[in-house]
């Protein structure tokens, strides 16, 4: 079966779509002052719609009320002085996990909104408004929660299996920072909790 989400989420697709949108904006002259109010309205409207869709996604997740237990271990991180923090055992449900992840993305969305607004108001950049007006929908609909709860994605295997893989900058995943679901890691984390 054709995996369209892998192509749309690929970094080359993001770069290509950015370059195409940039050329379209320069070709149609959307950065002229008479179009500025339209572009600002388009940007604010798209951000408002994405926020409303995010709250609707939270509503759908709460209505499904998936109380399937989820246990995993977050590996400890290396501190600046070379010491390693202990692994953390997380016990939650699928619903709580999804809600927490959507809230993190909502906070990231507000951060992006502030950053783009700063670039526009301080330096007069217009293209980020246009690009984010379109890419914010792509970003929302490609989130794992939207694919699960809106498009019926299967969560028993692959990238939609909870807990989700942690990806860093440019989609690179550090294997040492991935959540662990094996019984050995969970038992070691439980033992560490009992000894505290």
From TrEMBL:
Keywords on record: Membrane, Transmembrane, Transmembrane helix
Chain spans, region Disordered: 176-196
Pfam families: Pho88 (PF10032)
UniProt record, GO biological process: protein targeting to ER
Entry GO terms, CC: endoplasmic reticulum; mitochondrion
Transmembrane domains' residue ranges: 12-30, 42-61
Biased composition (Basic and acidic residues): 177-196
Entries under InterPro entries matching the protein: SND3_fun
Matching PANTHER family: SRP-INDEPENDENT TARGETING PROTEIN 3
Protein name: Inorganic phosphate transporter
């Amino acid at each position: 079966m054709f995996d369209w989400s892998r192509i749309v989420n690929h970094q080359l697709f993001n770069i290509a779509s950015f370059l195409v949108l940039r050329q379209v904006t320069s070709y149609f002259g959307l950065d002229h002052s008479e179009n500025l109010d339209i572009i600002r309205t388009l940007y604010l409207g798209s951000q408002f719609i994405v926020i409303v869709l995010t709250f609707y996604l939270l509503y759908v997740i709460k209505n499904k009320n998936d109380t399937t237990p989820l246990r995993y271990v977050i590996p400890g991180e290396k501190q600046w002085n070379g010491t390693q923090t202990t692994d953390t055992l997380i016990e939650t449900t699928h619903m709580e996990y999804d809600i927490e992840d959507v809230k993190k993305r909502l906070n990231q969305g507000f951060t992006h909104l502030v950053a783009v607004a700063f670039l526009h108001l301080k330096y007069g950049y217009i293209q980020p408004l246009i690009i984010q007006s379109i890419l914010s929908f792509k970003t929302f609909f490609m989130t794992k929660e939207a694919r699960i709860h809106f498009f019926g994605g299967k969560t028993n295997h692959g990238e939609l299996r909870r807990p989700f893989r942690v990806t860093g900058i440019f989609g690179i995943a550090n294997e040492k920072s991935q959540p662990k679901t094996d019984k050995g890691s969970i038992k070691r984390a439980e033992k560490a909790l009992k000894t505290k």
